[in-house]
Amino acid sequence: MPLLLTPSQTARKLECFGRLAERACDSGFHPIPMNGKMPMIKGWNSRPFGKRAIANLLARSPETAGANVGFRTGHLVAIDIDHEVFAISQRIAYVVRGALGDTPFVRVGRWPRQMLFYRSPEPTASTSLGKVDILGAGKIATVAGIHPDTGTPYYWLEDSLLDVTFSQVPLINAQQVQKLVRWLKDDEETYKQATTQELFRVATATASLLVSARARRRIPSGPVVEGERNNTLFLRLLEPARATRSYAALLAIADRENASFLPPMRDEEVDRVAKSVWDYRQAGRLLVKGRQATVLPIDKDGILNLKPDAFYLLAVLKTTRAKKTFEIPQKATAARLGWGSDRVKKAIDGLLAAGYIRIASRQMRNSTSTLGRQVRALIEYEWGLF
Description:
386 residues, alpha+beta, Arc Repressor Mutant, subunit A, 3 domains, 6-stranded antiparallel β-sheet, 13 helices, 44% helix
């Protein structure tokens, strides 16, 4: 849908380069007058282009005052994502941020195509990777004016390069750029091999992941690479599986996690990992790192042969008794469970009879109460069949 021009945007349309070039030059950028996406001057890539040159150009060629503004790239690095499908464009943006880090400088001419900006201490070589271009030495990135195809102004998703100095642009290095090139090539191969359904499943999940991460102002440090994906996905699904009500909901979470992997796993691999986690949940054997869990290695017959109170007490003891030997104070246990002491004693006797616990030691100790001096048995237990 066409954008409505505000008064400030209209002024920028009529006098874009003339209005912005000197300020951009003061901020450390190299502004170039553009006819749409093409430079209007010769020798733009080699000649110094400071404030005096801008003033002379505007005096000599007043038509450049209303031109679009381009910034010469090299030390300024622009990642131009030219994909028309929203989900895939967002997938690529996610990979870019994973390799280079976050940036608030994202320029849009025709959404969902977008351009992300960084800076480098050394001139960066330009590279073309299908529908993604790394604009470095010998290139220009249009940053303001009117898009030649849409007839509407370029705009910024968050912050604009026109409002900051060059030193405020996120810094990257050559190793990060090389990593980005490698990741993008791997991603492209994945898309070539994937079916349409697989491609959109991964890409849509990535869009959801990126939007939620941006809303929290947090971009993941980078995609998980091949060799780490299965185990990483399994571990990441353990916690959400505890609260998930259905396998379909867990699979949707798995898709979002898989979207951050490079390359993403095929659908059948994601399904297999998610199904494995769900099976553990259904079997009551879902163990989450950092969370206490209780495993009762009892078969069906063992469960059926125990009375309910004995089974419940067994679960409580397995959760609370980690030492080799332990006590079961009947009064304290009865108060904790809301039982009577006799009920606790019967449950203990049931566990002793079944062999799940056994008496490790028995000592007679003197104790003093309102009834006077008494002798009581101090019993220590240990695990039996476990």
